[in-house]
């Protein structure tokens, strides 16, 4: 796939996911907007507010002027405070105000993406408060696909309307999360040199990946089957997603091999900030 095709694939995946969110919200009764999601401290309304806020900031809109309450227990870092401010600002907004703002933001952002003249490698600003930095344009788009799709799934679980677990955005998110496996296994879990940890994921998105730790303690992912890994995890795709994103208590995980190493891997599985 060429760089231009990759960029377009990310835009298409983002479009499908964010339009699925607008369709999901259209018939939603007012009380459903207050349902809690698996994002700590965030309701359905809050997740939607977050999506609006990030896309608006990418459009160049100014951040709202707002004083954030100090008693929000789920806000534990400067990055979290940065993301929380535009969410808290919208907590008094009605359902029609939220859906109207989301639809208008999607229209504007879609137009901006169509008219953008960035090449895949061009550096653009990722607005994330203390974590802000310049990223290649293609990486920024991939980040937005991942974030929007993960929050689409947050909303679907909260509302009891499963779907799109095997969409184009789901496949982008799979690759994004697989890239983080070496960090989990080698760095965070401290797997010893020469060890192998396999992940056998089943369900709407199936894959088998092995993390191998080299003599210098660095991990790398490959798709070959390890006949006798030190640890093998077998789990469903949605469980894998929820583990990697720190979402509540996920479904069952079958563990074979070194139980101590497996426990360290599971204790450090969260990849999202």
From TrEMBL:
Domain spans labelled Mycothiol-dependent maleylpyruvate isomerase metal-binding: 15-156
Q: Which residues form a coiled coil?
A: none
**Which segments constitute the MDMPI C-terminal domain?**
172-264
Tell me a Gene Ontology molecular-function term this record carries: metal ion binding
Q: Which NCBIfam families match?
A: maleylpyruvate isomerase family mycothiol-dependent enzyme
UniProt name for this protein: Uncharacterized protein (TIGR03083 family)
**Originating species:** Kitasatospora atroaurantiaca
Per the UniProt record, the lineage of the source organism begins with: Bacteria, Bacillati, Actinomycetota, Actinomycetes, Kitasatosporales
């Amino acid at each position: 796939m060429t760089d231009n095709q990759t960029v377009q694939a990310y835009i298409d995946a983002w479009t499908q996911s964010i339009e699925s969110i607008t369709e999901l919200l259209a018939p939603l009764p007012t009380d459903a907007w207050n349902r809690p999601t698996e994002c700590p401290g965030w309701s359905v309304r809050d997740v939607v507010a977050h999506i609006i806020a990030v896309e608006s900031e990418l459009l160049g809109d100014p951040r709202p002027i707002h004083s954030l309450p100090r008693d929000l227990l789920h806000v534990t870092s400067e990055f979290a405070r940065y993301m929380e401010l535009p969410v808290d600002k919208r907590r008094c907004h009605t359902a029609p105000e939220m859906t109207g703002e989301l639809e208008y933001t999607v229209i504007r952002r879609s137009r901006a993406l169509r008219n953008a003249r960035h090449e895949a490698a061009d550096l653009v600003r990722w607005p994330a408060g203390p974590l802000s930095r310049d990223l290649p344009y293609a990486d920024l788009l991939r980040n937005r696909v991942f974030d929007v799709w993960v929050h689409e799934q947050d909303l679907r679980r909260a509302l009891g309307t499963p779907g799109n677990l095997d969409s184009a955005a789901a496949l982008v998110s799979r690759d994004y999360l697989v890239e983080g496996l070496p960090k989990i296994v080698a760095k965070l879990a401290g797997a010893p040199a020469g060890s192998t940890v396999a992940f056998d994921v089943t369900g709407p998105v199936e894959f088998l990946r092995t993390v191998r730790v080299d003599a210098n303690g660095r991990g790398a992912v490959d798709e070959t089957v390890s006949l006798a890994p030190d640890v093998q995890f077998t789990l469903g795709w949605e469980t894998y997603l929820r583990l990697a994103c720190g979402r509540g208590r996920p479904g069952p995980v079958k563990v074979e091999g070194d139980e101590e190493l497996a426990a360290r891997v599971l204790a450090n599985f969260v990849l999202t900030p």
